[in-house]
Amino acid sequence: MKKLIAIAAAALLLGGTVSAQETTSMQASSSASTKATAGAITVEGQLSLWGPTNVIAPLIRGRYFLTDDLAVRLQLGFFTNNNTTNFAEQNNGEGGQGSRERTNSMFDIRLGIEKHLGSHEKFSPYLAAEFMFGSGSATETWTNSDNGNDYEVGESNKISGGWNGGGTTYNPGTTIGLNLIIGADYYVFDQLYVGAEFGYGFTSNNRPDVVTERTSGNTTVTTVNLGGSSSALGMYNMNGGLRIGLRF
User: Fold this and answer.
1) What CATH number is given to the structural domain containing 157?
2) Kind and range of the H or E element at 27?
3) How far apart are CA 199 and CA 195, in angstroms?
4) Number of domains comprising the chain
5) pTM, 2 dp
6) Domain identity same for 178 and 229
7) Which residues are registered as beta bridge partners of 67?
8) 12 pLDDT exceeds 70?
9) Cβ contacts of 34 within 8 Å, gap of 6 or more
10) Residue 42: its pLDDT value, please?
């Protein structure tokens, strides 16, 4: 009988110890950091408010965490735009019709690395560096017009490589750059975060030749305006805006 009592007491003691360990483990798990850790993947969206086009462009960025505080990042951006303006031969809208059509597009790819700092559970500041490459194109076509604004039967114009008529100039090209960044993520929930970042960058841009083919009747005249290059140091190639992302 004494042996049975001793065995029962030992079992109760062992059970209490295991239960305490499980409770401690659950408490530790519930208070564990919600930030991304090694092996995590995050995907986020963002609106670019700055850039060489001065156009809001949709951006998607993915990150893979190599360790708890080190991540690689890949960002992709793309937009395309088409705008057509019609004008009539007469002020009342009657008669012949002419048009000016402008089409432009641009894509942007950025590859970088992030170093996350601090030991906060939900807030994750970081330093980053990224390399960027972007390319854009543009065309403009006038139909029944010799200036892109007024009707003129039999006149047409096609501009490749940019816009230089109708009061607006747009010259896309190829851009490369390097950004140094400071940013932060804040995890609203375990898998949902918001963030922002800013920094300083260098860009170099090469603009293409602008080729104009003007047709009047049966005669076509081609002119070429040579392209050029430029460089900038500042926040010109940064992506400002609210970031919203998911962790997987």
Assistant:
1) 2.40.160.20
2) helix 2-30
3) 14
4) 2
5) 0.73
6) yes
7) 70
8) no
9) 121, 122, 187, 189, 190
10) 95
